[in-house]
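User: Please check token order:
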Amino acid sequence: MCNSLAELSYIFARMLKSFLLATISGLFLAASWPTYGFPALLFIAFIPLLIIEKQFTDAPFQKKSLRIFLLSWWAFLLWNALSYNWLSQARPQMDATSMEIQQAWIAYLFPVILNSLFMAIVFITYHFIRKKHGEFYGFIFLPAFWMSFEKLHLNWDFTWPWLNLGNGFASYYKWVQWYDLTGSFGGTLWVWVANLLLFKAILIYLEHGNRRQLKKYFAGFVGIVVIPIIISLLQYNFYEEKGEEIEIALIQPELDPYREKYTKSGEDIVEELIELSESVLTPQTNFVITPETSFPGRGEVILNEIQNDSYILKLQSWLQQYPDAVMIAGAELAKISQATQPPNPTSIHYQDNIYVNRYNSAIQLENGRNDIPIYHKSKLVVGVEYFPYPHIFKPIFGNLMLDFGGSTNSLTKTKDRIVFENSKNNARVAPLICYESVFGEFTTEFMKNGANVISVSTNDSWWGNTEGHRQFLDYARLRAIENRRDVVRAANSGISAFINQRGDVVQQLGYGKRGSIVGKAHLNNLLTNYSKSGDLIARIALLLSGVLLAYHFVEKFMNKTNKL
């Protein structure tokens, strides 16, 4: 009886200690995140989890793997829940209905639970690999498999790469100027190498008391952290902006995206865009850029008849006063098709043989040009702009889509990375829309197609005055550094900003302000190494983790065969 009590007491004490370690990991990760956090914590944040995994693997009690999995899930739940809790504010701030509040919590809890679950699966897989093949293979596998997970998260229907580790340095962008070589995956690798080096130093000291080896590994840890920062600061201070300058006006209406946007007439919205533009435009202005879906508000512009659309004609007529200016505007478009079957999976049956496809788009208007270049948003927000894997989930959930003021049908996206060119100046614009500015290699595809400046038309006012729009702004800094392109960002309700090729916000219009700003942007035609190679580090990681997993399962199969 005494032995049993002693054993239970030991297990309870071990679990409590492990729970506290997992909590520390989760809190360190959350406290490192933009825009309020300090990213140096990322270099030590995983060490408590690594200690848990090591101690549980060596412990005598049962169900060790389950306990490691649950504790890591708890740590990642904390990180996810605290780092983007602003998602729960996706509702009207003053007069939200109970249904809208419920939808906001669904939109928040879904990625929190699912994303942290995926992270825990990555970590427990590392546990199995290290347990079977030893520390050396485990330490190679963990960064590779984590980067593989991040790469997957950039490319599948449940995409939510918000907490990809390389994004953690967005507010401290001066530390990662070398992203023009590696992209944000270089930051992910940096974080994991630092954590594993310091963890190895701790293990050596605790197991052998070897101070010499401790100093050696700790020196390696310090070097791994400090040397890239020094190199980056030198890059930052010696970098010179490249390319000719053009003048751009960014338009920032303050339009409530829940109520006002879908009740205000399209004519009034277009009039407001013109009014805000005229307050800052000069004969030298080369571009006018408006936010995401800035018109028409209620309804859509019919793509089949876009040349004769009254809103388009009004904007084109107004532009004649500024013959050298080009407008890039966010618009909601719809294409009508006559067919007996849906033209594509996102077609909406309207009536009889009529189908409609809806788009979140950017259009370019130019004096003297009859055709209208159009880009349709490609990276859509799951559950709000599209229904993931409809053939699998629609039979289970039906047509469940979150309604935040617009339609609850899936939008249609494009596969093409269209670059806007014009006859008035030498700008070739990558017309990113909102969420797309989070995706690194995706953005490089526009550079490969000739883009020399990046525009971001966005609407970040869904979450009110929270960290959401500030994190979006800081992530755009990383795209500027990776491609060495100026980023011009027009946002409904803010923050509209000019970001230079070093990632500096050189001019901005704050959140909640209605107005316009004019600034300069450079046109850089040179491709960075990252623009050319994209997520090369992630592709190597995918190959490496795939080989190690294959080796693990083949050896496991062979061992079972030999036993039989």
About this structure: The first helix runs from residue 2 to 31. The mean pLDDT is 89. The radius of gyration is 26 Å. The first strand starts at residue 244 and ends at 252.
